[in-house]
Every structure is written in structure tokens, then in C-alpha cells.
Design goal:
The structure holds two protein chains of two kinds. Chain A is α/β, with parallel strands linked by helices. Chain A is 54% helix and 14% strand. Chain A starts with a helix and ends with a helix. By secondary structure, chain B is α/β, with parallel strands linked by helices. Classes of the chains: A alpha/beta, B alpha/beta.
């Protein structure tokens, strides 16, 4: 019964009412703000650029402080990411700032794999957040969000166009993070060259389908300033923490024999624009975009990989639990099948080996029989020969005996003869 | 007595230098300069500034996408320039694509092959019968542009210079030096010099001063040597600075003058390359690099011959100055084998002999 009631309400049109007096829910944003302020904010910046291009100096200049960092070597074998977290405070606002530096980027002779550690790092932060989201016992409001909100990509001021490494890397990053390209060490490019350089870079990005972060123009309060800023991309920046006396003030600048380049002078470089856009106007939008666009994309891809879908073939919404169950069943079935396979294989193998052994046995038996027969034959032959020999011996013996008797007889007859004569005489 | 020398008749061979000068002007000079370094380092601009001309009028630059898998090309530009009656045939060898691809393994191979080819051709010409019009295309000097954005030499810089330092005079330069403050330039130069020594890279050394040169010259020479690697800036445009029209770069915060010695080392480079050491560069190329190549070539040829005909050869073999350690080992092994076989034969013969008896 409850279900039908809800259905009726959904079909009704929404009505707007006039208020007769001041209710007071216009304080909602303020409540939100005070809650957010008490919680503290979290902001994560990733700096991608060649060694020595001025990443650390620019961050120091942006936040008007000196973050500890060692000068990196040019001879690292591959790219490493170095995250450092700081707690900053301004007025009563607490900011947990994480700065991730890419160490060794652009130094190797073979840079085919240079983008991988960066993409892996961004994905890992997304994965950690996803894991936290999917936990049974979550503590999202306490979770230290380490997802990268903004990637500052430092372009070397060659004056011609992007480097091939820049193009390849930005293409890999544009669907995972908000990218703001900046032209580093811009005090080596003259005004006319800078204009051409910016146009060339933007056209190369567009023609290769690289999506960089666009400052939002929907909110009327910031539409105008954001759209003008969008036209100035990429920002040509200079960083410096050294103070130089210009006029009668101490300003942050770089002192050359031919003049001094002032960081906060808008006709010298776009530093002020970058600071304005990055920190003063659009921080919240950057965080939102990271969560609503990049993170959601990651999450969707990851879950799709695991086999989850939002709608099954009949266009009915799937529940996560059902999907879990089906996946699990599938998995168990698969497991059983594999077990069966392996068992079959094992049985087959055993049979094979048995057959082989039997065959060998038979062969041996045959051989044995053969040998036995041969032995038998030999024995018979030998017996025959023996018999022959015996017969020969016997016949020889008989002959010998015969001969002896003959001789004996002969002798006897000889000796008997004389006796007969005597006998005859007597008579 | 000293006056005797003054009273001696003037022989006149003191005019030899003038005669050499006259002949050389008539013959004209040639010089081949190679420029190498990543795209966007200002190589073309510097060459234009050095020779005050525009060699690269219609060149086409590649996009980033096209450069992902680019291979290194060798492009020669030859111009004839003349100054005060002295003619120079200048050849600039460009190496577009070096270090621009994503994978730059062995990207210097086309360059080393090119240098070897020129040596080979000269070797053949020199050994030929008609040597009247030998064309010398050997590379006399290679300017290598090091980016100023890093903390020193990068692996690709080290590998490149090491692949070339025994084939050509390598002169490393710090490119686009207008992005470095004087302190930073000094630090970078020190660091690069350290690393050059650490990795054993033999860059072009200026010849020692003769002891009878004047102090000023010696001082200049010392400064020159301490200034390497030169930090250079080039410009294709002429700007107005301090009331003069000079080659320079115009910035909102000031004007960089290419020929201002306190701005960069361009003048030192130009003086060294063109005004004082051009001939020395050619000499070192001929006397050291080419001779190394030639000796190596001949050695390979003779060791091959020795392998082919072991006993007597109809062609007289040139004596190997330094027999290869490997071939020596091989020869030793073969000798021992032979000895063993001989002994076995002897033994067997003896046995047979005894048996017969």
C-alpha cells in the first residue's frame, strides 16, 4: 500500500509557494560554511614537469612560504612521485595541503614509460577512496581524501610548441585529473613570442583531443572572470621567493642586469591570474570536478571491469547484492569446472602412465620368454651332444672290451695248444 | 757587437707572413660548423646572430605529435660570405630531431655516422691518385646547446658529448641564458664544468698562450677559459637600446642586448669561434680527430689482412704500432694449441715406431 502512495506523489507537478514572512532557512549556506570551516579543507596539487623547471619555486611563490625540498638529480632511472602534506592556516580556515612532485620526469633517454608512475599514483588514490566507500563500516567524513584535485603541467618555454613527451603525458592524464598547463620560466619569452606560443600550444592540445580544465562559466558570480581567464591559458608564470627593491617597495622578483621581473606584475607574467583562479575562485569547483567527474569515471570503469552493470538485459535495475551473488555463483561454478578439468587431466595422466608401464611389462615378459626358450634350446642341443658323446664313448668301450676279450682268447688258445699235444702223445 | 746584426743585409723572409696572407685570401677559407641540441634551444637564432645573416628563411617546424617518433636528420646549409676581400665558405650542419622523440635511445647515431662518413670520404680522397681538388667536408666544430632549465647536464647531454668528443671539437653552450640571473649562471657553469670532468667528457680546450704574449692577451685568454661553458643569447631582431640600434630581445622589464658582455657571453663565443680560434679548430680537427680516425681505420684494415693470410702475404703488412690485446691473446691460444697437437703427433709416431720394432 505504501508503494502506491509514493507513486501518486511522484506524478504530481511541483508547486512553488510564496512566503508570507521571513522563515530563516536562508541561513543554510552559512550553516554549511561553518561546518566546512570547522572540519577543515583538503586540497591536493600534483606538479608534473622536467627536473629544474621551477615546480617547487612556483608552489613556494603561490603559498608565500618555503616548503622544504631537496634539489633533484637528473640521473634517476625512472619517475617517482613524492607526496608531502602540510597544514596551513589563514584567518580561521584550516587547509590540509598535499603537494605531489614528479621527481625524475623527463630526464631519462627513453621516456616511453614516464607517464606510468603518474597514472598509477592517481589511480591508487581513487582506488583507496573506492575501497573506503565500499566498506561496511565507513568513516568518510574522517577519511583523508588524497585524490588529486589539480595537476599543474609545466611546459618548457621553447617558444615553438609542446614537446612530444608533454603531448603523450597530457593525453594519458586528461581523463583522470583536472589539468592546468602553465608555461614555466616565462621570463625567457618576449611578449610577441608568448602570444604565438600560447596559440600554438592550445591548438595542438585541441587537435590532439586533450581535455584541459576549463574554469566554470555557469555561476553568474564568476562567469565573466572565468571566461576571460580561460582565454589566457596556458598561464605564463615566473616564480621567486627572493625580495628585490623596486621603487620604494620590496617585491618578489628576479633581478637581471637588464631589469627586474616582478612576479606579481600582471604585465610581466600571469602569476596573479593563476593564483586567482587556482586558489581564490575555483578551488571548490576543482574538488567537485575531481569527485563528480574523474572519480566517478574511475569508479564506473573499475566496477564494469569487475562485471557489475547498472541494468540487466531486461532493463531492470540490478541491486548490488544480486550482482554479488551472481558473481559469486559464477565464480564457484568456474572453480568447480576448473577442478573437474584438473581432476580429468590427472586421471588421464595416470591412465596413460599405467598403460605405458603395462606395455613395458609386457615387453619385458616377452623378452624373458624368448630368453627362456633360447636357453631351453641350447640345453637340448647340449644334451644331444652329450648323448652322442656318451654313445661314442660306449661304443669305444665296447670295442675296447671286444678287442681285449679277443686278445685274451687268443692268448688262452695259445697256452692250451701245448697241453693238447702232450695229451696226444701219451695216448 | 750588436751593430753587426743591424749592418747585415736585409734578407727579406720577414715578408713570409704577408705572402701567406695574400695566398690564403686568394684561396679562400672554408669552415664547417655543426649545431646540436633539442628543438627550441635557439640554435638557428644563434647561428643567424653569429654570422649576421638569415640562413633559415623557409624552415618548417614540426608539431609535438609529429615529433613523438621522430628520427634525427642531417641538413646542410652552405653559404659563401665575404668580408674585406676574405672569402669564407661556411657550412652549417643542422641536426633537427635530436632529443625530441619520446624515446631517444641512440639518437646521436646519425650524427656520429655523418661525421665518420666525412672522415671516410676525406681519407679516400687523400689516398687517391688525383688529389688536386679535395673537398674538405669534415666537421670542424660542434656547438652543443644545453638547456638552462635544469640543474646541470642531463643523461642525454652526457651520452651525446661522450659519443662525439673523440670525433669532433665539442663546444658546450648554455642556451637561452636570459632566463638565468648572474648568480644562477655562475652556479650552473660551475656545476656543468664539474660534471664534464666527472663524466670524462673531452670538450674543446683552448690552446695555451705562448709565454711571450703580452699580459693583456694572457688576461683575456684566462678570462675566456674561466668563462666556459658560454652562456649565450641570440636574436633575429634589432631593437633600440640606449640610443643605438642593436640586436636584442625586448621584454616589458628591460632589453637584453646580445652583444653586451654583461648580459651574456655571445661576444666571447663569437670572438673565440670566428675571430681567434677558427683556424685552431680546423687544426685540431685535422691533427687530432682525423688522425685518430685514420689510425683506427688503417689498424682495422691490417688486422683483417693478418687474419686472412696467416703465413706470408704478398702485400707488405704495415707494422702494427699497438697490437690489439685481443688478437694477441688469440694468437697465443692458437700457438699453444699447435704446440699440443705437435706433441701428440710426436708421441703417436714414437709409439708406432716402438711397435714396429
Amino acid at each position: 500500500m505504501a508503494t502506491t502512495e509514493i507513486d501518486i506523489f511522484a506524478n504530481e507537478e511541483k508547486r512553488s509557494l510564496e512566503l508570507a514572512g521571513h522563515v530563516g532557512f536562508d541561513s543554510l549556506p552559512d550553516q554549511l560554511v561553518s561546518k566546512a570551516v570547522s572540519q577543515g579543507f583538503c586540497f591536493n596539487i600534483l606538479c608534473v614537469g622536467e627536473t629544474g623547471i621551477g615546480k617547487s619555486t612556483l608552489i613556494n611563490t603561490l603559498f608565500n612560504t618555503t616548503f622544504e625540498s631537496d634539489e633533484a638529480s637528473h640521473y634517476l632511472q625512472d619517475v617517482h612521485l613524492r607526496p608531502k602534506t602540510y597544514d596551513l592556516q589563514e584567518s580561521n580556515v584550516n587547509l590540509k595541503l598535499t603537494i605531489v612532485d614528479t621527481v625524475g620526469f623527463g630526464d631519462q633517454i627513453n621516456k616511453d614509460e614516464s607517464y606510468k608512475p603518474i597514472v598509477d599514483y592517481i589511480d591508487t588514490q581513487f582506488e583507496n577512496f573506492l575501497q573506503e566507500e565500499m566498506k561496511i563500516k565507513r568513516s568518510l567524513h574522517n577519511y583523508h581524501d588524497s585524490r588529486i584535485h589539480i595537476c599543474l603541467y609545466f611546459i618548457a618555454p621553447t617558444g615553438h610548441s609542446l614537446k612530444s613527451l608533454d603531448l603523450v603525458t597530457m593525453k594519458k592524464l586528461d581523463s583522470k585529473v583536472n589539468i592546468i598547463p602553465v608555461i614555466a620560466k616565462a621570463d625567457t619569452i618576449s611578449k610577441s613570442e608568448l602570444h604565438k606560443f600560447k596559440i600554438k600550444i592550445m591548438s595542438e592540445l585541441v587537435s590532439n583531443g586533450v581535455q584541459i580544465y576549463q574554469f566554470p562559466t555557469e555561476d553568474e558570480a564568476v562567469t565573466e572572470i572565468n571566461s576571460t581567464m580561460n582565454a589566457h591559458l596556458p598561464f605564463a608564470v615566473i616564480g621567486s621567493v627572493e625580495q628585490v627593491k623596486v621603487g620604494n617597495k620590496m617585491v618578489r622578483a628576479r633581478l637581471y642586469p637588464w631589469g627586474s621581473v616582478q612576479v606579481e606584475n600582471e604585465s610581466h607574467c600571469d602569476f596573479v591570474k593563476l593564483r586567482e583562479m587556482l586558489l581564490r575562485v575555483n578551488i571548490e569547483d576543482l574538488r567537485e570536478q575531481t569527485h563528480a567527474r574523474h572519480y566517478e569515471l574511475y569508479r564506473r570503469c573499475k566496477l564494469e571491469e569487475m562485471g557489475f552493470k547498472d541494468t540487466d538485459p531486461d532493463s531492470q535495475p540490478f541491486s548490488l547484492q544480486q550482482t554479488y551473488e551472481t558473481k559469486r555463483k559464477e565464480f564457484l561454478v568456474e572453480l568447480q569446472r576448473k577442478e573437474e578439468e584438473m581432476r580429468q587431466m590427472f586421471v588421464n595422466k595416470v591412465k596413460e602412465t599405467e598403460a605405458e608401464l603395462k606395455e613395458k611389462e609386457r615387453e619385458l615378459h616377452e623378452r624373458f620368454e624368448q630368453l627362456k626358450r633360447m636357453h631351453h634350446d641350447e640345453k637340448r642341443n647340449l644334451e644331444e651332444k652329450r648323448r652322442e658323446l656318451e654313445e661314442e664313448m660306449n661304443s669305444f668301450n665296447r670295442r675296447k672290451v671286444a678287442a681285449e676279450t679277443l686278445m685274451g682268447q687268443a692268448l688262452q688258445s695259445c697256452s692250451q695248444q701245448p697241453f693238447k699235444k702232450d695229451k696226444d702223445k701219451k695216448n | 757587437k750588436n751593430c753587426n746584426n743591424d749592418e747585415k743585409q736585409y734578407v727579406g723572409f720577414a715578408t713570409l707572413p704577408n705572402q701567406v696572407h695574400r695566398k690564403s685570401v686568394k684561396k679562400g677559407f672554408d669552415f664547417t660548423l655543426m649545431v646540436a641540441g633539442e628543438s627550441g634551444m635557439g640554435k638557428s637564432t644563434l647561428v643567424n646572430s653569429l654570422f649576421l645573416t638569415d640562413l633559415y628563411k623557409d624552415r618548417k617546424l614540426l608539431n609535438a605529435e609529429e615529433r613523438i617518433n621522430q628520427t634525427v636528420e642531417i641538413i646542410k646549409h652552405t653559404v659563401d660570405i665575404e668580408e674585406k676581400g676574405v672569402k669564407l665558405k661556411l657550412t652549417i650542419v643542422d641536426t633537427p630531431g635530436f632529443g625530441d622523440a619520446v624515446n631517444n635511445n641512440q639518437c646521436w647515431k646519425p650524427i656520429t655516422d655523418y661525421i665518420d662518413q666525412q672522415f671516410e670520404q676525406y681519407f679516400r680522397d687523400e689516398s687517391g691518385l688525383n688529389r688536386k681538388n679535395i673537398q674538405d667536408n669534415r666537421v670542424h666544430c660542434c656547438l652543443y646547446f644545453i638547456p638552462p632549465f635544469g640543474h646541470g647536464l642531463r643523461p642525454v647531454d652526457v651520452e651525446f658529448m661522450r659519443a662525439l668528443h673523440e670525433k669532433v671539437n665539442v663546444v658546450p653552450l648554455i642556451a637561452k641564458a636570459d632566463c638565468l640571473t648572474p648568480n644562477e649562471i655562475k652556479k650552473l657553469k660551475d656545476r656543468i664544468r664539474e660534471e664534464i670532468e666527472k663524466f670524462g667528457i673531452k670538450v674543446y680546450q683552448f690552446p695555451e698562450c705562448d709565454s711571450d704574449e703580452d699580459e693583456e692577451f694572457k688576461q683575456m685568454d684566462k678570462e675566456l677559459k674561466e668563462c666556459t661553458p658560454f652562456a649565450v643569447i641570440g636574436s633575429n631582431t634589432v631593437v633600440e637600446a640606449r640610443g643605438q640600434r642593436v640586436r636584442g630581445r625586448l621584454y616589458p622589464w628591460g632589453i637584453v642586448e646580445v652583444e653586451n658582455q654583461s648580459h651574456c657571453d655571445f661576444v666571447k663565443l663569437r670572438n673565440m669561434l670566428i675571430r681567434s680560434h677558427m683556424h685552431d679548430l680546423k687544426d685540431v680537427t685535422c691533427d687530432v680527430h682525423y688522425e685518430n680516425y685514420r689510425a683506427q681505420c688503417i689498424q682495422e684494415m691490417t688486422s683483417k689482412l693478418a687474419q686472412d693470410n696467416r703465413m706470408e702475404s704478398p702485400i707488405p703488412i704495415l707494422p702494427l704500432s699497438t697490437p690489439d690485446a685481443e688478437t694477441e691473446k688469440l694468437i697465443k691460444m692458437k700457438d699453444e694449441e699447435l704446440k699440443r697437437m705437435q706433441e701428440m703427433l710426436n708421441k703417436m709416431q714414437q709409439q708406432m715406431h716402438e711397435k714396429d720394432q
